[in-house]
């Protein structure tokens, strides 16, 4: 073999030398793939380890609520009388950061009275706050202490100038607004007709003071768990009657879903009751030929009604702190047909956490007989008047109460 052939031979075999190195490259590639697989397995294992406690919560722990399936009609369109506006933002805040949760408001002359989250009945004169009485006992301020501290909600002025107060835990009271002396009429927590008075809410008093009608929102849930009641949609709420002369306590209507605000009609033969969960107002007949019956005063409201109070035009002010936007999305409407989602939510989050996710939208409407809306005032996002629970009209202004805001809002009706 000559030199030329040898060189040719070597040239022919050079590719084989290069080719012989290819298995080394493939070996390195396999190592990279193997490392990737190890990383994926490790990541999945870590994810599974972190998700395991969540799965335990979902599958093993019992939900605190047992929701019922119920149906709401499609919310009415926000137009006409319900057309969104910013009129509630014209309100002025009073006593800001001086009182908390003035749920319901009443007046004797120009003196306003309300109950607060720390268990007190106070009177507001000018710019000053005076304590009338405390229905419960100290300490106050925490969720655990609320039942002993007391939580006054509905408040009305009786024919003799005394205050009638509904405390969510402690019961019904008659209070002397001058001396602060309080007489318990009905004890909270007692069993009436087989059910416990667990969540006394609002009340209405006849003109002669002989009858007091009040709502007991639930026999299962207390006020501090009101969101549980709304989500569970339990039909265990009632309307009761207390006779101040005979001291007899009777059930007028039962099986309501979160009966809330209550208002006597002028003939005093029936009361309007806000059935909050169902976004409607019922008319319960408490006297006369139709006693014991019930019909609907207004159905399918664009929000969830709270307190009801008379207006100077012969109608009724209804306060709503959450709405069912249309167009838009209503979470409570969506969940009404999906109890399993409600259960899951309450396994994972507390009521206080959930409250942060509920859109704030304050709405106060004036309604007349026949379920006619004549005007409405709005505050989208609750920038000025948040969490409104009631609207009390006095001397040309609306005084707006709240179940959690640290102020009263005053709206001059002549300016809106």
Write out key terms for the chains shown:
single chain; 416 residues; alpha+beta; 6 helices; 21% helix; globular
Describe the protein in words.
By secondary structure, the chain is of the alpha+beta class. Helix content is 21%, strand content 37%. The protein has six helices and 26 strands.
Mean pLDDT, all residues? 90
Radius of gyration over C-alpha positions, nearest whole angstrom: 32 Å
Strand order of the largest sheet: 1-26-25-24
- Helix fraction bin: 10-25%
* C-alpha geometry: globular
E-strand count: 26
Largest sheet: number of strands, sense, barrel closure:
4 strands, antiparallel
User: Low-confidence stretches at least 5 residues in length (pLDDT < 50)?
Assistant: 1-28
In percent terms, what proportion of residues is strand? 35-45%
How many distinct helices?
6
Give the termini distance in whole angstroms: 114 Å
Structural class by helix and strand composition: alpha+beta
Protein topology:
Blueprint: H1 3-59, E1 92-94, E2 105-108, E3 111-115, E4 120-125, E5 128-134, H2 146-149, E6 152-157, E7 163-167, E8 171-175, E9 182-187, E10 191-192, E11 195-196, E12 200-205, E13 211-216, H3 226-232, E14 237-243, E15 249-256, E16 259-264, E17 270-275, E18 280-285, E19 294-298, E20 303-310, E21 316-323, H4 331-335, H5 339-348, H6 351-355, E22 361-368, E23 372-380, E24 388-394, E25 397-402, E26 408-412
Antiparallel strand pairs: 1-26, 2-3, 3-4, 4-5, 6-7, 7-8, 8-9, 10-11, 12-13, 13-14, 14-15, 16-17, 17-18, 18-19, 20-21, 21-22, 22-23, 24-25, 25-26
